[in-house]
UniProtKB/TrEMBL annotation:
Catalysed reactions listed for this entry: a dipeptide(out) + ATP + H2O = a dipeptide(in) + ADP + phosphate + H(+)
Subcellular location: Cell inner membrane
Organism annotation: Allohahella marinimesophila
Keywords for the protein's UniProt record, in alphabetical order: ATP-binding, Cell membrane, Membrane, Nucleotide-binding, Transport
SUPFAM superfamilies named in the record: P-loop containing nucleoside triphosphate hydrolases
Taxonomy of the source species: Bacteria, Pseudomonadati, Pseudomonadota, Gammaproteobacteria, Oceanospirillales
Family, as annotated: Belongs to the ABC transporter superfamily.
Primary location group: membrane
Segments forming domain ABC transporter: 4-254
Protein name: ABC-type dipeptide transporter
SMART domains: AAA
């Protein structure tokens, strides 16, 4: 049995004209100790999917359908107190911006100790010892000093290390990291991602890494889901997706990486932009931007087809699997 199983999840956001669908029937699982990447442009639904797992959606968002099982237990069936025992203790989350997570008027030590005492019957001195242990685990320099400091006294990298230490306080089995290095410079990003990788290996933690950066995913995760407009459009082993992407959208994301062009050349980009929730295209949502669009792409939602090491939801991939000798013809969108 997988540690986490998400089955046919549907998430909607209500507004005065009804409701729009942000997540459209996605299913995936995470094994114990596995590192899963969820990739896509802004607006693909990555963070909404992650927030749904822990019931952290803000109104007017709500889970409309589907099951979320953690270690065999349906999280959607739990009351708020039972869910609180899972949230933070067994599943932790690392958010994008540490300044939005840390309380600016409380010292680091107070925040870590309060977190521990909220979930465990523990003395202040014992909680402080655990906080120090976790700060050392994330390689925080001078951890004793940091406990008495306030967030504004620390660098961005230090604040993110503290957020990771807080996520580890209660020895969770799964960490969800939502764009954990967005606010950091490139060198600190690399340090934080290496830290997460090392911690997952040492502590046998499962990780869901949400990012728009395929370069980061290629270095950290075992398996990857590519999302577009609220659906998973490709999934499989990370190395297989990076080295042999099947879906035209995934191919476009990889071509758009800066290292795919020579210095001085114009960067590649996918034509168009992510559709809004109010104006989702029918059929395959990517078809208005696709260079290999078929006649049925605007009316029929593609199912998954096994191609290479991946499962891809694409009519073109389905046609190529049926007829490997078919010749691909690009539209002007692919020029």
């Amino acid at each position: 049995m997988a540690l986490l199983e998400v089955d046919n999840l549907v998430v909607k956001f209500g507004h005065r004209h009804g409701a729009v669908t942000a997540i459209r029937g996605i299913s995936f699982s995470v094994e114990r100790g596995e590192r899963l990447g969820i990739v896509g442009e802004s607006g693909a639904g990555k963070s909404v999917a992650a927030f749904s797992i822990l019931d952290l959606l803000s109104e007017p968002g709500f889970v409309a359908a589907g099951h979320i099982r953690f270690d065999g237990q349906d999280l959607r069936a739990l009351n708020s107190e039972a869910l609180r025992q899972v949230r933070g203790q067994r599943i932790s989350m690392i958010f994008q911006d540490p300044m939005m997570t840390l309380n600016p008027v409380l010292s680091i030590g107070v925040q870590m100790i309060e977190c521990l005492k909220a979930h465990r019957r523990i003395s202040t001195s014992a909680a402080r010892d655990i906080a120090l242990e976790k700060l050392r685990l994330v390689q925080m320099p001078s951890p004793e000093k940091r406990l008495d400091q306030y967030p504004h006294e620390l660098s961005g990298g230090m604040k993110q290390r503290i957020i990771i230490a807080i996520a580890l306080l209660l020895d969770p089995e799964l960490i969800i990291a939502d764009e954990p290095t967005t606010a950091l410079d490139v060198t600190i990003q690399a340090e934080i991602m290496q830290l997460l990788l090392d911690l997952c290996s040492q502590q046998h933690l499962a990780l869901i890494l949400i990012t728009h950066d395929l370069g980061v995913v290629s270095q950290i995760t075992d398996r990857t889901l590519v999302m577009y407009a609220g659906r998973i459009i490709e999934q499989g082993p990370t190395k297989g997706i990076i080295n042999d992407p099947q879906h035209p959208y995934t191919q476009g994301l990889i071509r758009a990486l800066p290292q795919q062009t020579l210095p001085g050349e114009r960067l590649n980009q996918i034509p168009g932009s992510m559709p809004t929730l109010e104006h989702l295209p029918s059929g395959c949502a990517f078809h208005p931007r696709c260079a290999y669009v078929r006649a049925r792409c605007d009316s029929v939602v593609p199912g998954f087809t096994q191609a290479g090491e991946s499962l891809a939801a694409c009519h073109m991939v389905e046609d190529l699997v049926k007829d490997p000798g078919a010749v691909l013809i690009e539209t002007e969108r692919g020029q």
